[in-house]
Each structure stands twice: as structure tokens, then as C-alpha cells.
Design brief:
Elements lengths: L9 E3 L5 H5 L1 H5 L4 E6 L4 E4 L1 H7 L17 E4 L11 H8 L3 E9 L5 E13 L4 E10 L1 H58 L2 H28 L7 E3 L1 H16 L3 E7 L6 E3 L1 H17 L5 E12 L14 E10 L6 H4 L19 H11 L3 E7 L3 E9 L19
Parallel strand pairs: 1-6, 9-11
Antiparallel strand pairs: 2-3, 2-7, 4-5, 5-6, 6-7, 8-10, 11-12, 12-14, 13-14
Pfam families: HATPase_c
Keywords: Kinase, Transferase
Organism: Phytopseudomonas argentinensis
Length: 413
Amino acid sequence: MAENPPGTGLRLPDDVPLVRKIGHELIEFLPVGVYLCNAAGHLTTYNPKAAEIWGEAPDLGKEPIRYTGAYRLRSENGAHMPFEQSPLAAVLLSKKPITNLRMIVERRDGSQVPILANIVPLFGMDGTMIGFMNSIQDLRQHAAQEQAQNHLQNALMQAQKMEQIGKVGGGVVHEFTNQLTSLSMSLSLMEREITDNGSEQLQARFALCREATDQVTRLAEGLLLFARTRPRVLERIDPNQLLLGMSTLIRNDVGQKIDCQFDLASDSNFLRANRQLLESAIINLVANARDAMPGGGQLILSTFNTLLDRSNFMHHNANFKPGRYVVIRVADTGTGIAPEALEHIFAPFYTTRAANKSTGLGLTMVRSFVTDMNGQLAVTSRQSQGTSVSLYFPCYGSEHSLAITGSEQKPER
């Protein structure tokens, strides 16, 4: 009796049908797809998992189906793989197994399923090849986990790069700021002389110098904040009192064409943060809202309490902890953000505005600040309908705000 070499396939008695040799009940409940073909390459049986991967359940009672129940096969790189030229056909010719083969099953609806195939030839007791068995593992979940891992790795590398940039750039920007301070002081000393001179041309040139100096100074201050080189003192903050205290500044900043409203919850909790940086974050968001409404619109600054967990808050960052949060929200009725731009808005120096209108660091600094305060940030936007930016901070204590004068009270959300 001829015997096939060990490890090259399964040897089965040839006095029972092929399906019974493998054991139909065994493969029926396996968590991987399993199917068998005879020596002619015709599909003889398959389990429910194989049908789920294929996206269809072939009718074996009709014309013979060769090699697989899949609509189409592709190689790992996406190239179409005709059945007659596939590894399935190769096993029947070589009589050797093929293991850990990555392929793609393309379904009839065009969707694709990455799989890991292990094709084993089947032999009778006399050594004659009687078919093959293929087990196919669905790799969709594995691919998603791999992609998520790559995203995390890339994010970590980017964070490490930005940390190094911050360390090196912080010292440079400090020196840069010192020189700007000297320049600004010199301009202040020159201002009276230029005014007394009465030359309109000289005054116009001075105004350009002052505007350029102020803009570069703001950029340097933004870089210092981004580099995290300044000490950050945390304090207990009433969000309602903070917004009301900034109301005049905010209304002056947005101008008369924009209807500015404050919608503050009477039971808003306190939060713990650096007041200067929180005010800077709010001004950044207000400026973005103003620029998104050149023709006018409505700006609403609101506060409320909410409970967050992983099921109802999908935008959380790595330091997220479920619990009670107080929210400061800045919403506008402006032009909105295009979907393709929305995923990039927190990238350093990314901006959809003209280069002379934005440093591209505003939202980057806002997210960095909120993350430092153990908070969360969420942005929703629809083109031509507006944008809403919500800053979530863990509630600090159980005391409620009393600063609701002049605001519209509203219930907790």
C-alpha cells in the first residue's frame, strides 16, 4: 500500500463518502470556514462560516462548482486571481499543502474579506489523492486591530516628534520673544515722535510695523504655549462667572453683525484649570466662530453638566475617565467645516484660512490645554449650518455656580 509522505496531507479510508470521512458534524460548528473539494476540484461540502465569508451559500445540487464557493479571489495585494491559476488548483497538481496563505475573498456585492487559508490535500489509503480541504480564517477583525495599532504607533511617533520640537523650539522662541519685546518698546518710544512729526506717510508705515510686530508676538506666544514652557497654576473656576466676565470682550471681538448669546446652566458645577489658558482657549474658539460668519450670524456660549461613559462619548482621548463633567460649548451658525478638513483641524499649523489670518496653532493649543486639564474635546460641524466645539472638564466638587445674572437659565442635560 502506498503512503503519502508525513505532513503532506490527510490519509483517509476510501470506502466511505468524502463528507463522512471528514465528519460533517465536526466542521459544521467550527469557528473558521471549512470546505472540501474532490479530486476534480468540485466543491462537495462547506460549513456555515465558509458561506458567511463568501457572502452566499452555493447550491451544490446544481452544476458543479470548482475550487471554492467564493465569487472571486484576489491576492493579498489585490490582483485578481482566476480559480484555475489559484493555489487551490495548484494543490491538486502538486499534491502538497499550502499553509498560512493570505488572500482576499471578493463577494458578489463587491465587498472584500481578507482571509488566511490553509489548504491540505486529502489522500486515500492507497495514496491516491481524493481532494483537498481548505480552512479559511476571517481576518477582518485582525485587520481592524492592526490598522488601529498602526494609527496608535503613528500618533505616538508624532507626539514624540512634537515633544522634541517643543523642547528645542521653546528656547529659541524665548530668545525670539525677548527680541520682539525690545522691538515693541522701541516702536512705543518712536510712536510719539512720529505723531508729533505729522507725516501721514510715516504714520502709515509705523502702523504697518506695529501690526506686523503684534502679529509675530502673538505667534511667539502661541508657540510658547504649545511648547509648554510656562508654569501652569490651576485654580477652581466657576464657568458661568468666567464667561460672564468675558462677555464684553467677546461681544466687542465678534462685532455687531453677530448676535452673541450666553446660555448658562443654573446648576453648572465648578471645574479646575488654568484660568489664563482657559480664557485663551475660549477666545480662540470665538475668533474661529467670528471668521466663519463674515456676513453675520449667531454665536452661543453655553454651559451644562453631563455624565460621560465610553458608550455615549466616542470622541474620548487616552486619559478619559467615565464620570460627571461640566461643559463649555461655543457654537456658531457659520460656514461649517468640510468633512475632509475636519479630521485635520487639530494638526499643528493646519488652517483653512489665509496664511496672514491664522497661525494654524489655535485649535492645536486648545486641544493640548484641554488634554492637560484631564478634559475632553468634541467638534461637530455641518457645512453651511455651523460648528459646535465642546470642552469637557471633570466636575470639581459638588458646588453649583451662582453667577447666572443676565443669562438664560436652562436645565441640566
